[in-house]
Amino acid sequence: MKIFIATACAALLTTAAFAQEASESSTTGEKDRYTSMFTQADSDKDNYLDSTEGQAIGLTGASFASLDSDSDGKLSLDEFLALISAGQDAE
Questions:
Q1: How many domains would you assign to the chain?
Q2: Tens digit of pLDDT for each residue in 5-33?
Q3: Which residues of 52-67 are buried (b: 16+ CB within 10 A; e: fewer)?
Q4: Is 20 inside any structural domain?
Q5: pTM of the full predicted structure?
Q6: Is 71 left (phi over 0), alpha (psi -120 to 50) or beta?
């Protein structure tokens, strides 16, 4: 019985570890995808998206403004990556 319980606990811990790794991998994949999207949209290569560049990928008006956390009229990569945690989509 002790062997069964130990085996069951080990299986549960292994499953939890794989689930956490898959979740982290998914987040990393999303970050890579959004970083690539940002880089492609940054047509003047100044490392910011202005409202025109944002419109090209579907960020208009309120959605652009909501990501512009410092209200400077442009989005840094960090501000843009907030889309991941906000669960929005820029496509």
A1: 1
A2: 433 333 333 334 333 433 445 678 999 99
A3: ebbeebebeeebbeeb
A4: yes
A5: 0.66
A6: left
